[in-house]
Design goal:
Elements: H1 3-29, H2 41-54, H3 67-91, H4 99-121, H5 137-148, E1 154-160, H6 162-174, E2 180-187, E3 196-197, E4 200-204, H7 209-215, E5 220-224, H8 230-240, E6 246-249, H9 252-260, H10 276-280, H11 289-296, E7 300-304, H12 309-319, E8 325-330, H13 333-347, E9 357-362, H14 368-378, E10 382-385, H15 392-397, H16 399-419, E11 424-430, H17 439-457, E12 461-467, E13 469-470, H18 477-486, E14 491-493, E15 499-503, H19 505-518, E16 524-527, E17 531-534, H20 535-545, E18 556-558, E19 578-582, E20 585-588, H21 599-602, H22 612-622, H23 624-637
Parallel strand pairs: 1-2, 1-5, 2-4, 5-6, 7-8, 7-10, 8-9, 10-11, 11-12, 12-16, 13-15, 14-18
Antiparallel strand pairs: 3-4, 15-17, 16-20, 19-20
């Protein structure tokens, strides 16, 4: 039922109530017969309804009415009675001006008006309350101030559901020491647009947030929408960061808890400062849990690079599917210890029969003898190879280290997976490997090509999974921004038009497991589309989420793009050479046809004696066009200091 239809129904019920009131009063206060009831009384009834409209009675959301709303109805009924008496005196309706008639009609009006609303409230059908837009914003703001006192110092906008907003407003009413005053509630339900919730106007649509924040001089915005998904919350948050208000919100975990506990109220203490992950709002992908469970349950799983952002999240997700044993291998002992402690804490006690066994191993994938001992001791069925060097600026100046870790390390693991009869090896790669223009991307592409060639020679299945930038990754631009902000700025952006795609570690780990379940060998899967974000806008968001204002508290400095760095990365799904296989998981065409030229000659080199020039030369044999472009630009670049974040051409 539309909102105007519901208003009309409520108006008709009030007309019936006022008519019944006048008729009963006529019968009780006069000796006239019922058929002599004056029709001119309908003018007085219309006046009372008009007073109700003027007092915004039809905009009150009676489900959440408080003492202020009841008081408003009482005052409106009294005002309507006085207005009707004044009109009756002017028109000359003598019975309506008698004191007994006035008092009796007022009390009957009051009773019937409340009866109508309670009947509507408890009716089994949809709520009939409706509304009209506020015609005078200043008058509505004055009304709210009367309700909540003039001593409140901070004005609050609540964005979320009616239930959550009602609970928060009630807390503000009950705790005057907080010195808060709710000014407006922004909702998604357009049917309640303009209605009054515990004395506060409701407005539909997140697009109104900026205008309302400025018009009503809002100090704080509270996002309290337990039923909304991460994406919807992120869109709301992006509107909020465009204001100058302090922002607090329900964390996703708290929202899930409130959904599970039906009817649980939202508390002010539940609201926290939003994070950059909330700004992106990546939803969990739809995964075939049965298929993934069949792949992992009861098996031994090895995750190299298990202490990294992606590797650690992969370990967390794998444990949900009850492997017999999970081995996390990394050289980062600190984060490996933290992961082990986290998993041990989540297990909640001694290991019982059937529980997954977790083992952490400190080792380098570049150490062939150590890796052989690991494979020999654990005999993994599944290998997820996430060990890599990924910081592009450092790799550009240390190509040998990247070659040894990203290529030689993969070769060692791939060969051992074949030797020790693993079922599958999944190589974690990057979308930059499609068209490698940096040492990091070139190394990952070579690793991909080796894995795909190995698939043709082995009983094990070798599969590649590419993904964009991780939101939570250490050392990425978000991490750098947050560190620069902690130091007081400025935040540095290479180009105002720079844009990148981002995905969350959680969705990447889940989609990697989905790809592993689908994998038969030789495929290249890509995860996407990621959240395409302008880095300049991201810098502004990081500043606002940190409670500061760009260019007032913290500056943003534009540096320059380096040669070979593209303002925009190719979108993961827009290349036209992919087909979808599941939610946000794509299969590239031609994965099985990838061929690494002259591969056998490369491994006659002695990696231990390799230097940076040797590494670049080997990569140049595989990607000669990039190598030639680098040589032509080398002289011009020699004396230039290049800013952090470079993803340029392969160079020595």
């Amino acid at each position: 039922m539309g909102k105007y239809a519901r208003v009309m129904i409520l108006v008709l019920l009030d007309v019936a109530a006022f008519s019944g009131s006048y008729f009963l009063t006529w019968m009780l206060a006069t000796d006239e017969p019922s058929n002599a009831f004056p029709r001119v009384f309908f003018i007085l009834i219309a006046i009372k309804v008009a007073v109700f409209f003027a007092a915004a009675i039809y905009r009150i959301l009676f489900e959440y009415a408080n003492a202020n709303d009841y008081r408003r109805i009482l005052l409106a009924t009294g005002s309507g009675t006085l207005a009707a008496v004044t009109a009756a005196t002017l028109i000359g309706i003598e019975p309506a001006t008698q004191p007994v008639f006035i008092l009796l009609s007022f009390f009957i009006d009051l009773v019937l008006v409340f009866v109508v609303r309670f009947v509507v409230l408890f009716a089994p059908s949809e709520s009939l309350y409706a509304h009209t837009r506020a015609q005078d914003e200043d008058g509505e703001r004055r009304s709210a101030r009367r309700h909540f006192g003039r001593k409140s110092t901070r004005r609050v906008m609540i964005v979320g559901t009616e239930v959550a907003a009602a609970g928060l407003i009630e807390q503000i009413e009950n705790e005057p020491n907080l010195k808060l005053r709710p000014e407006v509630v922004v909702i998604e339900d357009k049917n309640n647009d303009g209605m009054i919730l515990r004395g506060v106007e409701m407005v539909h649509g997140r697009k109104e947030i900026r205008v309302l924040a400025r018009r009503k001089s809002i100090d704080e915005i509270w996002i309290a929408n337990p039923v909304a998904g991460r994406r919807q919350i992120a869109l709301t948050l992006r509107e909020c960061v465009k204001t100058r208000c302090t922002i607090r919100m329900l964390p996703p975990r708290m929202s899930r808890m409130l959904r599970e506990k039906e009817g649980a109220p939202v508390r002010i203490d539940d609201l926290k400062q939003p994070t950059i992950s909330d700004y992106f709002g990546r939803e969990r992908p739809h995964i075939d849990h049965k298929l993934v469970g069949e792949l992992i349950r009861g098996r031994v799983v090895l995750v190299t690079g298990g202490a990294g952002t992606y590797g650690a999240e992969l370990c967390r997700q794998i444990l949900r599917y009850k492997p017999r044993r999970l081995i996390a291998l990394d050289t980062d002992e600190d984060n490996l210890a933290l992961l082990a402690a986290e998993i041990g804490f989540q297990s909640g006690g001694p290991r019982e029969a059937g529980d997954p066994e977790f083992r952490s191993v400190v080792a380098s994938v570049r150490d062939v003898e150590t890796m052989r001992r690991v494979f020999s001791a654990f005999r993994p069925h599944l290998v997820f190879h996430a060990a890599e060097l990924k910081q592009i600026p450092l790799i550009q100046t240390n190509p040998r280290e990247a070659f040894l870790t990203n290529i030689v390390g993969l070769q060692i693991c791939a060969d051992l997976a074949d030797e020790y009869a693993a079922q599958k090896l999944i190589l974690a790669s990057t979308v930059r490997a499609r068209v490698p223009v940096s040492v990091a991307a070139a190394c990952k592409r070579v690793a991909e090509m080796y894995a795909l060639e190995k698939d043709l020679q082995s009983e094990a299945a070798y599969t590649v999974v590419r993904f964009p930038n991780l939101i939570e990754a250490r050392g990425n631009v978000i991490d750098i921004f947050e560190r620069q902000l902690a130091l007081g700025g400025p935040l540095t952006v290479a180009d105002k038009d720079l844009a990148r795609e981002y995905v969350s570690a959680e969705e990447t780990a889940l989609l990697t497991l989905q790809a592993a379940a689908y994998a038969e060998g030789g495929e290249i899967y890509e995860i996407g589309p990621g959240e395409r974000t302008e880095i300049y806008a991201l810098a502004e968001a990081v500043i606002r989420l940190g409670g500061r204002h760009a260019y007032e508290d913290v500056d943003i400095t534009i540096t320059q793009l380096r040669s070979g760095e593209k303002p925009y990365e190719d979108a993961a799904v827009s290349s036209g050479q992919m087909e979808p296989v599941s939610d946000r998981l794509w299969l590239t065409s031609g994965g099985k046809a990838a061929k690494l030229p002259h591969w056998s000659e490369l491994w006659y080199q002695n990696p231990g004696k390799m230097d940076d020039a040797d590494a670049v030369a080997l990569l140049g044999r595989i990607f000669p066009s990039a190598s030639r472009q680098t040589a032509a630009q080398k002289k011009d670049k020699k004396d230039k200091q290049e800013p952090a974040g470079y993803t340029g051409q392969i160079r020595d």
